[in-house]
Amino acid sequence: MGEVAVFDRHTPPLDALLGTVEDAMTPEVVVLEPAMRAGDAVAILEKAGVAGGPVVHEGRVVGMLSFSDLAPPEERLVHQRTGPFLRGERHLVGLAVQDVMSREVVFARTEWPLTRALELMHTAGVNRLPVLDRRDRPVGILARDDVIRAVARRSRATGQHPSMVRGPARKPRLVPD
Question: pTM for the complete prediction?
């Protein structure tokens, strides 16, 4: 639980280059409460310009809520955000965050190498991880955009950015179903 990332000559190069979760995370977290109305959670997420956040009860993360959790089952395949008849919150009337949140929470620790969190995001199929300290308290969020920013920042700082590769143009191939 409380391991610390130590970067030395034995550290894999990518870990040393990318740093830790704490280096990449966003420390300001939009926190939701289990008992709040789901419609209010939508408004909070939209106002903050984020697509999800941790649900916290008594200082502990008890779930995650994202826009995909809030979509009615018939809309989960096609995510419609605009339109003349769209009033997506109507199906949320009477529901609390705890009724629609994801209860199986995967998380990252501040001291983890960023590569460990990336692998977890990929394996779990999530777009964001709450970041917990050693006392299991939320101290940040790691979203895919944070990872892209961290990679770009490190790339600029080290001068190790990929150059445009020019080669023969490849035609796209259509593959039948």
Answer: 0.72
Identify the CA nearest to 56 among candidates 76, 74, 30. 30
pLDDT in tens, 59-105: 999 999 998 887 765 544 444 455 544 445 556 678 899 999 999 99
HSE, CB side, 13 Å, CA atoms: give it for residue 41: 32
**What is d(CA 56, CA 43) in angstroms, rounded to the nearest whole number?**
17
Report whether 62 contacts 73 (CB < 8 A).
Answer: no
**What is the token pair recorded at 26?**
């966003």
Between CA 31 and CA 92 the distance in angstroms is: 19
Q: Which residues contact 136 (CB under 8 A, 6 or more apart)?
A: 60, 61
Hey, where are the domains in the chain? 13-157
Beta partners for 132?
109, 138
Q: How many residues does the chain have?
A: 177
What CATH number is given for 13-157 in this structure? 3.10.580.10
